[in-house]
From TrEMBL, chain A:
<dbReference type="InterPro" id="IPR010390">
    <property type="entry name" value="ABC-2_transporter-like"/>
</dbReference>
<feature type="transmembrane region" description="Helical">
    <location>
        <begin position="203"/>
        <end position="228"/>
    </location>
</feature>
<feature type="transmembrane region" description="Helical">
    <location>
        <begin position="134"/>
        <end position="153"/>
    </location>
</feature>
<feature type="transmembrane region" description="Helical">
    <location>
        <begin position="240"/>
        <end position="261"/>
    </location>
</feature>
<feature type="transmembrane region" description="Helical">
    <location>
        <begin position="159"/>
        <end position="183"/>
    </location>
</feature>
<feature type="transmembrane region" description="Helical">
    <location>
        <begin position="38"/>
        <end position="63"/>
    </location>
</feature>
<feature type="transmembrane region" description="Helical">
    <location>
        <begin position="75"/>
        <end position="96"/>
    </location>
</feature>
<protein>
    <recommendedName>
        <fullName>ABC transporter permease</fullName>
    </recommendedName>
</protein>
<keyword id="KW-0472">Membrane</keyword>
From TrEMBL, chain B:
<keyword id="KW-0813">Transport</keyword>
<dbReference type="InterPro" id="IPR017871">
    <property type="entry name" value="ABC_transporter-like_CS"/>
</dbReference>
<keyword id="KW-0547">Nucleotide-binding</keyword>
<keyword id="KW-0067">ATP-binding</keyword>
<feature type="domain" description="ABC transporter">
    <location>
        <begin position="4"/>
        <end position="256"/>
    </location>
</feature>
<dbReference type="InterPro" id="IPR027417">
    <property type="entry name" value="P-loop_NTPase"/>
</dbReference>
<dbReference type="GO" id="GO:0016887">
    <property type="term" value="F:ATP hydrolysis activity"/>
</dbReference>
<dbReference type="InterPro" id="IPR003439">
    <property type="entry name" value="ABC_transporter-like_ATP-bd"/>
</dbReference>
<dbReference type="InterPro" id="IPR050763">
    <property type="entry name" value="ABC_transporter_ATP-binding"/>
</dbReference>
């Protein structure tokens, strides 16, 4: 009986990180078994973003700038968003299945395992289109970077911007998918709306929008910190002080996502009673 | 100290109270009404280490909800659960190391990964050492024949293979307390036999087991104690042997006579026995109280006075007893 009551160590951050990494690596390994699927999906990810690239190229053939933003700066805006949204498919694609798992009671097993449920759900699968999106996003970002004449000096800021953008995007998608704990349905409609808002509005300079939208996207749903703020700082449209806001926004989004997901789990009542 | 202790365990769900049809749906949108549904109603359950307990009841009795409460998936509306002294809901991570769970209707395998990868992910999640992992996989392979489908993707497995792989997943970390919810559902006889043999071995090794199943053969072959629940309440809790001894008070003899069986005449001739027509006109079943008459005495009397062409003995199964418990004909 003494053995039965021996204390067990709860999951620490290192353990959680190891569980997450192993699950993602296992998914990537399994993808390599289906190379045709991989190339089709990765190409689909590229094609979608080629349209955005073509749109900007055609637009700037007729106008010199949009609200003071030039062609290469706009490419950076689109590129950074594409890298961030593509990364969600690679790093936490499983959270899109939250609604379906809640409906079918598939969270059950994940609650009985010694790892955070959100980590287990996020690593359920990965979206292969993410490889294409991230690759093409990086190409757009690099092309815009060179064209905007930024040089090598701000590269560390660029890397920080990418890391924060990916973190904010993953956290926001997780948070909006967690809404399905309360609003039951197989589709993560709120997360779809978020991505739709970003792919339509956040690839444009924020100055085009009324003050209400600017405040909303900076301080309520801080999507502006995914691409607009860092690119605006790098290209001199905003002062460097704004850059502090990017990691802070990332931290706030992660905490909010984990908190909302945890609250959602509290209200989870499985299925088939 | 018991390994599992539940006191006054109650779970109430809120369900929308709306009329059927489009009109009812619209009305519910404007005027939301709910009513409470109690799935588990004040259950007390104590399980000692090493016990094998069958937890049975008709559909909707609250079996799966109880398992979800005991495993920490659901939070009780009222009452308490302690598994090895811990609240499984609030101390989820610590509890997870000590329990193994299998829900027969769902898989815990990663759908797009080979079985082997799922097991390795669980190995790392539970912090199982390489040596223990190898030893357990070898044992599972010996008893469950895992080897043949270890490299296969979970989504390509047959139901029987999937269930065996899920059982290995539930036990890879050598849990002290194992919950199995319908582990043999949908399986063919040979796979069921193999699983039951495996579970018997598990119990013999000292693992505590709580098993829910509609297949009473699972229960009779694996468990020593049975808890019957109905409408969320415990209807019976005791050893299976005692349940049989207490409620199986009659035995039956099936007779195949030379000519047609006249049940009223036979009842008149043998008034101490209960007679019923059999499957064909010449077949008849006679039931007698085992406490009043010995089987030899009954058979002697029947063969001497009726000269049957053939006869066979039958005992009411535990299934009959449980059916009567469900129907409320028996009380503890």
């Amino acid at each position: 009986m003494a053995d039965l009551l021996a204390p067990r160590r709860p999951a620490g951050a290192r353990h959680v990180g190891a569980v997450y990494t192993r699950a993602i690596v296992a998914q990537i390994r399994s993808i390599t078994e289906y190379p045709a699927d991989f190339w089709v999906m990765a190409s689909a990810g590229v094609m979608w973003n080629v349209l955005q690239f073509a749109f900007l190229t055609v637009l700037f053939a007729t106008v010199p700038d949009v609200a003071g933003w030039r062609y290469h700066e706009m490419l950076m805006l689109s590129g950074l968003f594409t890298v961030a949204s593509g990364s969600t498919a690679l790093l936490c694609d499983g959270v899109w299945s939250t609604g379906q798992m809640v409906l079918k009671g598939e969270i059950d097993y994940r609650i009985t395992r010694p790892a955070p449920v959100v980590v287990q759900v996020a690593t359920t699968h990965i979206g292969m289109q993410g490889f294409g999106e991230v690759a093409f996003g990086l190409v757009m970002l690099a092309y815009g970077w060179i064209g905007a004449g930024l040089g090598l000096a701000p590269v560390p800021i660029g890397l920080l911007a990418i890391a924060c953008a990916v973190t904010i995007e993953c956290a926001l998608v997780t948070l909006f998918c967690a809404v399905n704990f309360w609003i039951k349905g197989p589709m993560s409609n709120f997360a779809f709306m978020l991505i739709d808002l970003q792919s339509n509005a956040m690839v444009l300079p924020l100055g085009l929008f009324p003050i209400g939208v600017r405040l909303l996207t900076m301080f309520v749903i801080p999507v502006a910190f995914v691409n607009f703020v860092p690119v605006a700082v790098l290209t001199g449209h905003l002062s460097a002080a704004w850059l502090v806001g990017t990691p802070l926004a990332a931290l706030a989004c992660v905490l909010a996502a984990l908190g909302v997901y945890r609250l959602g789990l509290r209200s989870y009542d499985s299925s088939g009673h | 100290m018991p390994i599992l202790e539940a006191r006054s365990l109650t779970k109430t769900f809120r369900r929308p109270d709306k009329a059927s049809g489009f009109k009812g749906a619209l009305k519910h949108l404007a005027q939301r009404k709910y009513k409470n549904y109690t799935a588990v109603d004040g259950i007390d359950l104590t399980v000692e280490a090493g016990e094998s307990v069958a937890y049975v009841g008709p559909n909707g009795a609250g079996k799966s909800t109880t398992v979800k409460l005991l495993t920490g998936i659901l939070k009780p509306t009222e009452g308490t659960v302690r598994v090895m002294g811990r609240d499984p809901h609030t101390e989820r991570i610590a509890n997870a190391h000590d329990i193994g769970v299998l829900f027969g209707q769902r898989t815990q395998l990663w759908w797009d990964l080979p079985v082997e990868e799922s097991l390795k992910l669980l190995k790392h999640m539970y912090g199982v050492s390489d040596a223990d992992y190898k030893a357990r996989i070898a044992k599972f392979d010996e008893l469950l024949d895992l080897g043949e489908f270890m490299p296969a993707l979970a989504r390509t497995l047959s139901l029987g293979q999937r269930m065996r792989a899920d059982l290995a997943c539930a036990l890879i970390h050598d849990p002290k307390m194992v919950y199995l919810d319908e582990p043999t559902i949908g399986l063919d006889i040979s796979v069921k036999d193999r699983l039951r043999a495996f579970l018997r071995e598990l119990v013999d090794d000292g693992t505590t087991l709580l098993l829910t199943s509609h297949d009473l053969a699972d229960i009779e072959e694996v468990c020593e104690r049975i808890v019957v629940i109905d409408k969320g309440k415990v209807a019976y809790d005791g050893p299976i042997a005692q349940l049989k001894a207490h409620y199986i008070t009659t035995k039956a003899v099936n007779l195949h006579l030379e000519g047609p069986a006249d049940v009223p005449a036979l009842t008149e001739k043998f008034p101490d026995f209960a007679w019923a027509a059999g499957a064909s006109p010449s077949e008849v079943t006679v039931t007698y109280e085992s406490a009043r008459f010995s089987t030899a005495e009954v058979l002697g009397s029947l063969t001497a006075r009726l000269s049957p062409r053939d006869l066979s003995l039958s005992e009411p199964s535990i299934e009959d007893v449980i059916r009567r418990l469900y129907a409320g004909e028996l009380t503890q």
